[in-house]
Specification:
The protein is α+β, with helices and mostly antiparallel strands. The chain has a 4-stranded mixed sheet. It has a 4-stranded antiparallel sheet with strand order 10-13-12-11, with no helix packed on it. It is flat and about 65 Å long.
Length: 374
């Protein structure tokens, strides 16, 4: 996957939140403030200030481009993003508020796109990654899934070696099953044996289905044997801590409880942090006594939607924990050599494959409502 993009740098935490209503409240507070108060709430950086305009984000046609001090414009409808590993939140899609928004990613964001995020255990998401995650490799270089972000010649080579059509998503599934961190970065050996390819593909498809969590019209994953986590007692008051009892497989959020929560779900870590604990902490940051400014605006009561998200997350983590031993034990067997890939013209990928494709089918509005002369 030659084309890789660095992660988005938001520059200010208040532009993203687990609750979209909080973003509307923050926008209202910012746009109603004036002068020094607006500057303080905005939290200027070298890249973004209220007095600077910015181009509209691709695909967000209602986004304003005038200087924020002159005309904030209408409230931009929040979009779903992946903020942290397995933590889907909401983002204000206004480039005037984001230090480094990576418009090249927004241009290829659609219902066909998947993003591979480079972490020790790679993540795949249908949402735009917008956190401190890692380098991002889109599966497709153009909207509509028209051109795979794969080294030219790779798919025909694999199809010939394995005796059948190989789709771009198959390569993504193989990466999930066989890729490992190495001394030269993330390394993905390509199996020389068709049998090992098919075995890795089957494992990778299961991993992908779980990670996508029902995105793109798929069925949400379920635990085997008819098990599923339930709310045993509702979260009534705001929970100040999360706790886990392994004996009863019960997760407690203040006075609320959820079970069964398999131990694997509770212990599941990403980037050295327990995912469930990090997910809970992210939903209480606005209630931290140290929070100030727009970050302090958030829901007064625990939203019911968060409990539903929690149940789905527990299922996802439990399934990934069950698959972890199988993935760790998977051996791709003898690999295609670099010489074979060079002989087939796959390596090295051409320079153009490492850069974004030209996908402009319309003029994009620049700062101050101006359009570039093309």
């Amino acid at each position: 996957m030659p084309w890789a993009v660095g992660g988005l740098r938001l520059g200010r935490d208040w532009v993203a939140a687990p609750d979209p209503a909080a973003l509307r409240a923050r926008w209202a507070a910012l746009t109603s403030a004036e002068g020094a108060d607006r500057d303080r709430l905005f939290r200027p950086s070298r890249s973004r200030t209220p007095a600077a305009g910015a181009a509209a984000l691709p695909g967000q046609r209602s986004a304003a481009t005038a200087r924020f001090t002159d005309e904030p414009g209408p409230f931009p409808d929040p979009v779903r993003v992946l903020r942290e590993p397995f933590d889907e939140q909401w983002l204000l899609p206004d480039q005037r508020l984001i230090d480094t928004a990576r418009p090249e990613l927004w241009r290829v964001l659609d219902e066909h796109q998947l993003f591979l995020v480079e972490t020790p255990d790679p993540l795949v998401t249908a949402h735009l990654p917008a956190g401190r995650l890692g380098r991002i490799r889109p599966l497709h270089r153009r909207p509509g899934g028209a051109e795979p972000n794969l080294a030219p010649g790779l798919l025909p080579l694999l199809g010939e070696r394995y005796g059948g059509w190989v789709a771009p998503e198959d390569v993504l599934c193989w990466i999930l099953a066989a890729g490992r961190p190495g001394p030269r970065g993330y390394e993905v050996p390509l199996a020389a044996d068709p049998g090992r390819w098919r075995a890795g593909l089957e494992l990778g498809h299961r991993l992908l289905t779980v990670q996508l969590r029902g995105a793109r019209g798929g069925e949400p994953p379920r635990l085997p044997g008819g098990r599923r986590p339930y709310v045993r007692s509702a979260v009534t008051a705001w929970p100040h801590e999360v706790a886990y009892d392994a004996a009863s497989e019960t997760l407690s959020l203040g006075g609320g409880t959820v079970s069964p929560v398999p131990p694997g779900a509770w212990e599941y870590e990403a980037q050295g942090v327990r995912v469930l604990e990090a997910w809970f902490t992210a939903r209480g940051t606005h209630r931290d006594p140290a929070a100030d400014g727009l970050e302090a605006l958030g829901p007064a009561e625990w939203p019911q939607a968060w409990t539903s998200e929690l149940l789905a997350l527990v299922t996802t983590l439990a399934l990934l924990a069950d698959l972890a031993p199988e993935r760790a034990a998977f051996e791709p067997g003898p690999a295609l050599t670099a010489d074979e890939l060079r002989a087939a013209g796959v390596l090295p990928p051409p320079r153009w494959a490492r850069r974004p494709a030209s996908v402009l089918d319309h003029q994009e509005e620049g700062p101050g409502g101006q359009f570039a002369l093309l």
